[in-house]
Amino acid sequence: MLMQRAARWRPAARRRAGPAITPTLRHPLLRADRLLAGGLAAAALSGLVLAWRGRAETGSAAAPINAPSQWLHGREALQQDGVNWRHTALGALVHGASSMLWAGLYELLRERRESHGSTGTGAALADAAAVTAVAAVVDFKLVPDRLSPGFQHRLSRPSVLLTYACFAAGLVLANRLRR
Fold first, then answer.
1. How far apart are CA 89 and CA 77, in angstroms?
2. Per residue in 42-80, is it b (16+ CB within 10 Å) or e — as a string?
3. How far apart are CA 21 and CA 9, in angstroms?
4. Among candidates 33, 78, 56, which has minimal Cα distance to 163?
5. Is 39 helix (H, G, I), strand (E, B) or coil?
6. Which of 26, 78, 91, 177 lies in the 20 to 30 Å Cα band around 54?
7. What angle, rounded to 10 degrees, do the helices at 90-115 and 121-137 form?
8. Residue 89 belongs to what H/E stretch?
9. Domain ranges of the chain
10. Torsion 45-46-49-54 (CA) sign
11. pLDDT confidence band for 32 (50 / 70 / 90)
12. Which of 43-47, 52-56, 84-88, 161-165 has the lowest mean pLDDT?
């Protein structure tokens, strides 16, 4: 709906003549729409995997979701298994916010590639894999340990890889559903 309105909108001086303005990701409202869809889908899918693998490996679905709260609460957050506002809500909020950040990068990359004709699912998958790989490098190699996701301390390496794969799948899913 928003994209249809943006496509019909014309500045007052050009209402009678000239082409309609085509919507692009540069329009702040369209960017927010895409960013929210991609970020929420990626956060939801990866969050479900975190809970599933946390339950299987630690006996607590909340343990890996609590871990990102180490940003504020330090190493004590890595020992929390129960659901509580202090760790679980903050951990989910941090996970969601960082998902939005990476979804923003993904959407900028998709806009650039789509403007050059790369609109297929393969290109969307490649872009999601690239953004997710960059996110993993930043999370585990570039930032201090306290600013890492923390769930790598509670889950096995295959579970962490599965989490990142589902994050990428969420980005692609949101992108494909827009089509």
1. 12
2. bbbbbbebbbbbbeeeeebbbbbbbbbbbbebeeebbeb
3. 7
4. 56
5. helix
6. 177
7. 130
8. none
9. 37-58+96-177
10. negative
11. confident
12. 84-88
Question: Hey, what amino acid is at 93?
Answer: L
- Token digits of residue 11: 């500045």
Residue 45 has phi, psi (to 5 degrees) of -65, -45
pTM of the predicted structure, to 2 decimals: 0.80
Q: What is the pLDDT of residue 30?
A: 53
Is-contact 118 61, C-beta < 8 A?
Answer: no
pLDDT digits (tens, 9 = 90+) for 53-109: 999 999 999 999 999 999 888 888 888 889 999 999 999 999 999 999 999 999 999
Q: How far is CA 26 from the centre of its chain?
A: 19
Q: Provide the strand spans (E) within 100-142.
A: none
The answer to whether residues 116 and 123 touch, using CB atoms and an 8 Å cutoff, is: no
Q: What is the DSSP code string of 8-30?
A: H---GGGSSSSPPPPP-TTSHHH
Task: Give the mean pLDDT of the chain.
Answer: 85
Question: 162 by DSSP, 3-state: which?
Answer: helix
- The CA distance from 91 to 74, in Å, is 12
The total of other beta-carbon atoms located within 10 Å of residue 168's CB is 24
Token pair of 140 as six digits: 């585990």
Work out the end-to-end distance of the chain between its first and last CA atoms, rounded to an integer number of angstroms.
13
Query: What is the pLDDT at residue 27?
Result: 52
